[in-house]
């Protein structure tokens, strides 16, 4: 089996904007360890991203500062946003290396509101599920009910999310049915067990000062989450790595000092669940690499928590693939008919909603298509289909389709059996789109230049004629646009 590395971040950002460099949060290779490999996936779950009722439309239309910052950092490293989803202040970002994109199957996002009895999305969960190399993965980011005395509400939040989170992939309609589940977020469980007979804030601080070698056993016996797990009330299906870091809440913003108005607590957690024996003769597992907090971030009253896992997936696993033929010709804007071909593996079932997106060659998100066309509109009629054999279809893009700006682009084939689920079956190599008016004028280098000048124009200075070329009459603006497509100028 192959190994995939997942890197998780959960952070309640307290409605603040990024005010510190986030590179350290993502554990990139340093100058002292340049050979350290990057993870295959980054999963970032944020809570309390600034969101107000009057801003909900704007939140849906424009990227927030946190997403923009993570995008700049990770996309520069070659990652692509596989899926992002948001419910008010809860944000879940899933990034993957480009090489994995064509193996993403059945991507679906879901959410559950638990605030105000299920009417409001300030509390609840967002999730993304997908299949990768034959294994199903579910990623959940949640923000549960706050306050020490509302433990019963947190338990109810968990069970509501489990019941109401329903997916449209038949084998994995429930969170718990997936091969791998990772549950992250501000779970809001406090150091307040048993209720009414627990430690004060001052007692907790005194015990923290006595902790040696990151052993927090004496404090964790008061942790509400561990208590409800043991009792079977919530999260009993999940495993949490050993906690070897101090409580991550509540801090005075801008400092590393606890705000004693709240009991220092491990509110921010990362848990996981694996169905180890879901396949015959194969054992799935998630191996912990690290689980820790990042203490030097002070923009919030929470500290971020990170974890890395290696998970097992099937080797050389391929299913339902689409391969685009190489595109050597330039697609000139306004061409009457641009054609190319793609080959579908024998197991691809064409759905009425399948579509082909045209993306920038260096696209950063699967949601950032420039234009798209439904396959049914651009595919030409096929001949007889032989069962069990690949089939090649011709794609014909009529006038009015395609992009309007010269540049380099890719085709991406999406299988979409319904409005909620989609799979990436194929990505083309980059191809060029150009404007007909940008074609360069071809000049015969063998044709001798005239020794006479045009009327009213002085003769060329022969001392510089061999060094400088006379560009008189050439449209430099059009020429520069042509070269701008081929040159990267900072």
Question: Would you summarize the structure shown here?
Answer:
The protein is an alpha+beta fold. The protein has eight helices and 20 strands. The chain folds into two domains: 2-313, 4-Layer Sandwich (Deoxyribonuclease I, Chain A), CATH 3.60.10.10; 322-437, Immunoglobulin-like, CATH 2.60.40.2840.
Shape: elongated
Tally of DSSP β-strands: 20
| Uncertain segments | 440-490
> Which sequence of SSEs, written as H and E, runs from N to C?
EEHHEEEEEHEHHHEEEEEEEEHEEEEH
Spatial order of the strands forming the largest sheet: 3-4-2-1-11-10
Secondary-structure class: alpha+beta
Number of domains: 2
User: Mean pLDDT, as a whole number?
Assistant: 87
Determine the N-to-C terminus distance: 43 Å
How does CATH name the architecture of the largest domain?
4-Layer Sandwich
CATH H level of the largest domain: which superfamily?
Endonuclease/exonuclease/phosphatase
Strand content: 25-35%
Characterize the quaternary organization of these chains: single chain
Individual helix count: 8
Helical proportion? 10-25%
CATH-assigned fold name of the largest domain: Deoxyribonuclease I, Chain A
- Rg, please? 28 Å
Biggest sheet layout: 6 strands, mixed
CATH class of the largest domain: Alpha Beta
């Amino acid at each position: 089996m192959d190994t995939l590395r997942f890197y998780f971040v959960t952070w309640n950002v307290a409605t603040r904007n990024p005010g510190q460099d986030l590179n350290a949060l993502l554990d990139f290779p340093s100058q002292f360890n340049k050979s350290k490999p990057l993870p295959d996936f980054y999963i970032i779950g944020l809570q309390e991203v600034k969101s107000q009722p009057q801003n909900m439309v704007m939140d849906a239309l424009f990227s927030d500062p946190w997403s923009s910052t993570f995008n700049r950092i990770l996309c520069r490293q070659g990652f692509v946003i596989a899926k992002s989803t948001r419910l008010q202040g809860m944000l879940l970002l899933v990034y993957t290396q480009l090489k994995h994109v064509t193996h993403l199957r059945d991507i679906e996002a879901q959410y559950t509101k638990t605030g105000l009895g299920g009417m409001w999305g300030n509390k609840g969960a967002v999730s993304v599920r997908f299949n990768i190399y034959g294994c199903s993965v579910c990623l959940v980011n949640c923000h549960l009910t706050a306050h020490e005395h509302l433990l019963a509400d947190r338990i109810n939040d968990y069970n509501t999310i489990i019941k109401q989170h329903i997916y449209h992939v038949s084998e994995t309609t429930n969170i718990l049915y997936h091969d791998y589940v990772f549950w992250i977020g501000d779970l809001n469980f406090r150091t307040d067990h048993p209720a009414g007979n627990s430690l004060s804030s001052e007692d907790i601080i005194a015990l923290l000062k006595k902790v040696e070698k990151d052993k927090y056993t004496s404090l964790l016996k008061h942790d509400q989450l561990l208590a409800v797990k043991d009792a079977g009330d919530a999260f009993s299906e999940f495993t949490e790595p050993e906690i070897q870091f101090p409580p991550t809440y509540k801090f005075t913003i801008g400092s590393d000092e606890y705000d004693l108005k709240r009991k220092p607590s491990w509110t921010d957690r990362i848990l996981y669940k694996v169905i180890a024996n879901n396949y015959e003769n194969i054992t799935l597992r998630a191996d912990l690499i690290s689980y820790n907090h990042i203490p030097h971030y002070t923009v919030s009253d929470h500290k971020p928590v990170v974890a890395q896992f290696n998970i097992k997936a099937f080797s050389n696993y391929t299913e339902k693939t689409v391969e685009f033929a190489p595109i050597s010709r330039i697609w000139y804007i306004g061409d009457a008919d641009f054609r190319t071909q793609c080959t579908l593996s024998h197991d691809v079932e064409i759905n009425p909603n399948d579509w082909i997106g045209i993306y920038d060659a260096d696209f950063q998100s699967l949601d950032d298509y420039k234009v798209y066309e439904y396959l049914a509109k651009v595919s030409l009629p096929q001949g007889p289909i032989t069962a069990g054999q690949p089939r090649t279809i011709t794609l014909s893009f009529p006038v009015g389709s395609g992009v309007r700006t010269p540049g380099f682009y890719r085709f991406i084939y999406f299988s979409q059996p319904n409005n909620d689920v989609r799979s990436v079956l194929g990505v083309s190599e980059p191809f060029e789109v150009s404007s007909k008016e940008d074609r360069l004028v071809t000049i015969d280098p063998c044709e001798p230049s005239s020794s006479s000048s045009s009327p009213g124009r002085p003769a060329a200075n022969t001392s510089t004629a061999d060094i400088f070329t006379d560009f008189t009459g050439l449209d430099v603006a059009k020429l520069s646009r042509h070269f701008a497509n081929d040159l990267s100028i900072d």
